[in-house]
Amino acid sequence: MEDTLSIIFAIILSLILMFMFPLIDTWDLQDNLSYVVAYASTVDFVDAVRNTGYISRDAWDNYQNKLASTGNTYEVSMEHRRFNNDLSAYLNVYTLEIEDDLEKGILDNNGDKKYVHKLDKYDYFYVTIKNTNRTQATILSDFFTSGGSTNVKIAVAYGGVVWSVRDDF
């Protein structure tokens, strides 16, 4: 009887080792690939904003689509630090205000409505993202460790100074 229980235990343990750990490794690799896509997309988006001096609705939508292509959901936070000469201080504009500008639009020099958020030279622009869903690797890892790990597996923060401003948005 003891030999039968040892054999059953050995079979169960070998099945776990043969199937579950490679599966965890594969899903960890998927998370790593999602991080690479999220990081590259964030860097491209922020650098485009820093080089042009504005955020267009198309650029914002393309950025959102690239993030969605990873299969994860993200909380995206934007911060625009604008220098106010009257106060000699930086004033912060955050995600909701920037999204409002992209929805309402502004009038350009010709009186046409453009859906952009303008930045000035030497302003600061930052984007921070965190995944909000539990990835498959997190779910399986929590199952084996009985842990309550955090959902944040993919996090990116990137930003810097706006170097040039284009008026032909």
Describe, in short, the structure shown:
By secondary structure, this protein is of the alpha+beta class.
Can you tell me about this structure?
The chain has 169 residues and is α+β, with helices and mostly antiparallel strands. It has a four-stranded antiparallel beta sheet. Strands 1-6 form a two-stranded antiparallel sheet. Strands 4-5 form a two-stranded antiparallel ribbon. It is 49% helix and 25% strand. Helix 1 packs antiparallel against helix 2 (57-68) and helix 1 packs antiparallel against helix 4 (136-145). It has one domain (2-161).
Distance between the termini: 79 Å
Q: Which sequence of strands runs across the widest sheet? A: 3-2-7-8
| Number of DSSP helical runs | 4
Biggest pleated sheet: 4 strands, antiparallel
Count structural domains.
Answer: 1
Ranges where pLDDT stays below 50 over 5 or more residues in a row are: none
Structural class: alpha+beta
Report the order of strands and helices: HEHEEHEEEEHE
What is the 3D shape? Answer: elongated
Helix content: 40-55%
